[in-house]
Design a protein that fits this description.
The chain is mostly beta strands and 568 residues long. A hairpin with a 5-residue loop joins β30 and β31. The protein is built from 6 helices and 37 strands. The chain has 3 domains: 226 residues, no CATH class; 161 residues, Jelly Rolls, CATH 2.60.120; 152 residues, Jelly Rolls, CATH 2.60.120.
Length: 568
């Protein structure tokens, strides 16, 4: 039996798709109702069944809303790109920012004071000494120079050290039997130890804590020694021949500094290969976006109080296949292009000074071109060397001094594009739409209404799939069909922001083959490829993208059904 279709919407809407149900009323019912309604009217002639055509053709029309697709640009990007990398300015302008910490170096990891164990020093008498109880105290004055060095630096000339903690160890021995003496030690006026000995060996340790130790001359810790020889307390006489009176060994151990002043020499701060991941291109299903104002910044936060020259070595873009391409340009620091980063000066101890190296399209040879290849990362080595100009006694370093190096790739979403940006799925169960043979559909037209603010053309395609998302057919078969191009929204007032735009709706008739193909469909996959106007021509159009840009599409179908009354 042939049926007449009436379509009504359900009040419930879900996932951008308007469900529908079909009310079927048979032609027999319609004719019966018509006859009953006519009984109460005046019958002018008798009905003749012989003149009734049993194959009467009835062509009802049906308009069915299938669903809508609503997209905001920021929501599309959040779904496809790591949200932590998407930054929206106060005006809504979109940028992608990729950060990577490269290294953090503490001074205490590089510069240290090694344990110092010098050879014994003797205090000698050049003449014979005769000591008896009638004599007074005999005093000897002397100095002991202890060389001070630093680990991991070359050519340092230290002027003074603020010792946080350290041990000064004194060992005194004498081969003169019966000698009584008192020894006092000091470091340029800082008393350390007073040791009273008989004829025995003695060791003592003094703790240095929060002491400022001057080194004069540079790299030399000068210890003053006052040696008092005491006469015998009895009536004996002590004869001392020329030669050593006492032997002294002064050592420094467990030395930790708070601050070191002077010329700290030359030492290296090297950062091995590090990679800055670039995830933007990974999130794209296909195509690319050409960023016209990219920048790569190497940032420094430095509390080392001395000049540090920076070299950027092996600055390379990494392709998806693992290949590398060198980023070049005269602005990239290297052996022939010295760059000294900012550092704290005397009086700024404990302060951290910021600095950066900014590489752009304008000051590099190929940063823009390399980003055109959709890299997955940028690799770099950062090497630093101190005091490139030589001796400078204004250096200082704290045990807490540090150099923090990071990298940031900034991609403002301004440029030109040819990429697949829109991808969505709508429910479309053909069997619910029409559960009779598809050949009863004389004509099926898909109608799409658009309203958007995208400043680029959108190349639209709809794919019909079965319940396992296998593609059965598509809406557009001709790649050159201009109806699938949704025209870019214009900038009417010239403020750089696209205005709301509502182009004329499009209507796409389906062939009978397409109708047959989609009769088992369960879903419609919407694909939208954005293309900057004039992408394949010169000059390329440069547009800016804002988070509030949107793209709306309302999709419906108009069906004409061919129904006859044969068999009523």
């Amino acid at each position: 039996m042939k049926t007449l279709l009436l379509i009504s919407r359900k009040p419930l809407m879900k996932c951008g798709t308007i469900p529908y149900r079909i009310i079927r009323i048979s032609i027999r019912q319609v004719l019966t109702m018509a006859l009953l309604m006519s009984l109460g009217s005046c019958i002018k002639e008798e009905f003749n069944s012989d003149v009734f055509d049993p194959t009467l053709q009835i062509n009802p029309g049906v308009a069915v809303p299938i669903g809508w697709a609503k997209y905001r640009l920021d929501e599309i990007l959040f779904d496809s790109i790591n949200p932590g990398e998407l930054v929206i300015g106060q005006d809504g302008f979109i940028s992608f920012i990729y950060n990577q910490d490269l290294i953090s170096v503490d001074a205490s990891e590089i510069i240290s004071i090694p344990d110092i164990m010098p050879d014994p020093i003797s205090i000698n008498t050049p003449i014979q000494i005769v000591l008896d109880s009638s004599m007074g105290v005999i005093e000897y004055l002397d100095t002991i120079d202890i060389p001070i060095a630093l680990n991991n630096t070359t050519g340092a000339e230290i002027d003074r050290i603020v010792i946080e903690f350290g041990l000064l160890n004194i060992n005194v021995t004498s081969d003169v039997a019966g000698l009584m003496w008192i020894a006092r030690f000091s470091i340029i006026g800082i008393p350390i130890q007073q040791i009273t000995l008989g004829d025995l060996d003695l060791s003592a340790t003094d703790t240095l804590e929060s002491e400022t130790i001057p080194l004069n001359p540079s790299n030399v810790l000068r210890v003053s020694v006052i040696l008092n020889l005491l006469p015998p307390t009895d009536e004996s006489t002590l004869i001392i021949d020329p030669g050593p009176l006492i032997d002294i060994v002064i050592s420094l151990t467990e030395m930790d500094y708070s601050v070191i002043y002077g010329y700290l020499g030359s030492f290296a701060i090297d950062v091995g290969p590090r990679i800055l991941p670039v995830n933007f291109y990974n999130g794209l299903e296909e195509g690319t976006f050409s960023f016209t104002e990219p920048s790569l910044k190497i940032e420094f936060l430095n509390s080392f109080g001395l000049p540090i020259s920076i070299d950027l070595l092996d600055l390379q873009a990494i392709g998806s296949d693992g290949s590398t391409t060198q980023i070049t340009g005269d602005s990239i620091p290297g052996p022939s292009n010295e760059r000294i980063i900012a550092y704290p000066r005397p009086g700024q101890e404990g302060m951290s000074i910021s600095d950066s190296i900014l590489l752009t399209r304008d000051n590099t040879d190929n940063l823009f071109d390399i980003l055109e290849t959709s890299p997955v990362g940028i690799s770099m080595e950062v090497n630093g060397s101190t005091n490139p100009a030589g001796e400078n006694h204004d250096n200082f370093i704290l045990d807490t001094s540090s150099l923090f190096i990071s990298s940031v790739l900034i991609l403002p979403m301004q440029g030109y594009a040819d990429l697949l940006l829109i991808s969505d799925t709508l429910d479309f169960v053909f069997g619910t739409f029409y559960d009779h043979p598809p050949e009863e559909i004389k004509q099926l037209i898909f109608r799409i209404n658009f309203k958007h603010q995208f400043p680029v053309d959108v190349d639209l395609q709809l794919y019909f799939t079965d319940d396992s998302y296998m593609v059965l057919d598509s809406l557009f078969h001709d790649p050159a069909d201009q109806r699938k191009i949704v025209e870019a929204a214009p900038d009417e007032n010239g403020d750089g922001i696209a205005d709301e735009f509502e182009p004329a709706p499009i209507e796409i008739p389906l062939s009978q083959e397409q109708i047959d193909n989609i009769s088992e469909s369960h879903h419609i996959i919407v694909k939208g490829r954005i293309t900057t106007s004039g992408y394949d021509s010169q000059p390329l159009e440069n547009v800016r993208f804002y988070s509030f840009y949107y793209f709306n599409a309302h999709i419906g179908a108009i069906a004409e059904l061919e129904i006859n009354s044969d068999g009523l």
